[in-house]
Amino acid sequence: MPVAKQWTVDVYIGEHNGTTSAEARLHTEEDTEVVGTGKARLNPADEDIPEIGDELAVARALSDLGHRLLLTAAADIEAVSDKPTHLTW
């Protein structure tokens, strides 16, 4: 039977002065931690709907997390292969 690994992502959202900030924090079983961040600003001409700011900030944080994880993988490949690695997004 294959053994499944479990990685978790915690997402934290905060709001201050019309700016919503999000942090997506990945935790692996190997104690690796990778963090992505995102922000969303309310346009003064738009209606204030907090859920939309949350969605945008979290989407940007998760996207940033994915990019940082890809960079981490590339660095790990280079460390074991001694060759430059160019992973695409």
Question: If you had to describe this structure to a student in words, what would you say it looks like?
Answer:
This protein is α+β, with helices and mostly antiparallel strands and 89 residues long. The protein has 1 helix and 3 strands, in the order βββα. The chain has a 3-stranded antiparallel beta sheet with strand order 1-2-3. A hairpin with a 2-residue loop joins strand 1 and strand 2. The longest helix is centred in the last third of the chain and has 32 residues, at 50-81. The two termini are 32 Å apart.
Layout of helices and strands, plus pairs?
Elements: E1 8-16, E2 19-27, E3 33-41, H1 50-81
Antiparallel strand pairs: 1-2, 2-3
Compact description:
The protein contains 1 helix and 3 strands.
Key phrases:
1 helix, single chain, 89 residues, three-stranded antiparallel β-sheet, elongated
The number of helices is 1
Distance between the termini: 32 Å
Helix/strand-derived category reads alpha+beta
Helix share, percent: 25-40%
Number of strands: 3
Radius of gyration computed on alpha carbons: 17 Å
Q: How are helices and strands ordered from N to C?
A: EEEH
Give start-end ranges of low-pLDDT stretches. none
- Anisotropy-based shape: elongated
> Per DSSP, what share of the residues sits in E-state strands of 2 or more residues?
25-35%
* Strands ordered across the widest β-sheet: 1-2-3
Largest sheet: 3 strands, antiparallel
- What do the pLDDT scores average to? 92
